[in-house]
Amino acid sequence: MADLDKFRRDTRAWLEANCPPEMRKPMTSEEDTFWGGRNTKFSSEPQRIWFERMRDRGWTVPHWPKEYGGGGLDGEEAKIVRQEMAAIGARLPLSSFGISMLGPALLKYGTEAQKKEHLPKITAGLIRWCQGYSEPNAGSDLASLQTRAESSTKPILLISGRSPFCETFFDDVRVPKANVVGTVNRGWDVAKYLLQHERAMISGMGERGVGRPLGQVAADSVGSDAQGRLEDPILRGQIATFEVDEAALAAAAERAVDLAKAGQSHPAFSSAMKYYGTELNKRRYEILMSAGGIDALEWESERSKGGARPRAWLRTKANSIEGGTSEVMLGIVAKRILDLPGA
Ligand SMILES: Cc1cc2nc3c(=O)[nH]c(=O)nc-3n(C[C@H](O)[C@H](O)[C@H](O)COP(=O)(O)OP(=O)(O)OC[C@H]3O[C@@H](n4cnc5c(N)ncnc54)[C@H](O)[C@@H]3O)c2cc1C
Hints:
Layout: H1 2-18, H2 45-57, H3 75-88, H4 97-109, H5 112-123, E1 153-156, E2 165-168, H6 187-203, H7 214-222, H8 233-261, H9 269-292, H10 308-316, H11 326-337
Antiparallel strand pairs: 1-2
Helix pairs in contact: 1-3, 4-5, 6-9, 7-9, 8-9, 9-10, 9-11
The structure holds flavin-adenine dinucleotide (FAD).
Residues 165, 318, 321-325, 327-328, 331 line the site of flavin-adenine dinucleotide.
């Protein structure tokens, strides 16, 4: 009790020293209420001073916890602040739906992250909240509200067991005009040009890059004979054919670069490369799976690095779909490069 008496004396003294005389007069217009918000303006200098002093003391919302910008006062102390403010006619330094409605709801139901994100901005008057419940057919009958939130994305699980893709739904999207690329209503030209690059990129999957040659990888599993050749003659034949085709793809890729440099590249050539590169990559993984035998089917173990090989093998099945299917690539080659009749 003695503590509360002291708290009352201190509060009275602080308010006396800090509340500007102009802020002790009855309000006469809407402008006398300070609502805060991003575009806020103070209607007078005393209004600004009063708000900032109360904010710095945590007394825009005296009973909220200090870590959220409140004053950390208990119920009795907060009551004393209200009483002493009323005694000198002090105006509320900040009025907001954030303080009176959203904040209490977040304090009761919000996660810690939500509280930390929103409550300090409310107590500091940085954000002005509104409440949007009513709908044309749900005013008094509020429980018949139709508004609902939907996750706009839905994960797509691939056969490799991974889910790096998702369906994303866009409704009534507005895009600033500054984002238009090229000419309005000629987006298809831009889209096709981008696809050429996507197909060129995907075709690179057929090239070996820095990976070990297939023959060496296979030798780890099936072993080599006295002459250093793979023990399995069928696999040996498959790998030899594959490596010739791989070299052909690399040569074609170099040719494509040279033609591009000379300004002679055919816009549809990337489709031929996409077709060949992705079909080749699928063959590479078929061979890797054959070479690995039953071990190659391990799906979860530490030894198999979480089934890295079979998951990668299954992922290659999508290479001839993504970026345009192989059938469609062949159609483009037939029509635009070979100029075949009826294509
Ligand atoms: C792993 C993966 C990643 C992807 N990533 C993206 C991405 O990042 N962005 C994106 O926009 N899309 C992406 N896609 C979508 C991809 O581009 C399409 O799946 C692809 O173009 C095939 O279209 P579709 O699935 O509608 O099949 P459909 O067009 O319905 O084709 C079904 C079948 O019919 C055949 N077919 C269709 N038309 C013809 C024709 N004219 N001639 C001959 N055969 C034909 C096809 O070859 C296929 O076998 C991705 C797909 C996969 C699998």
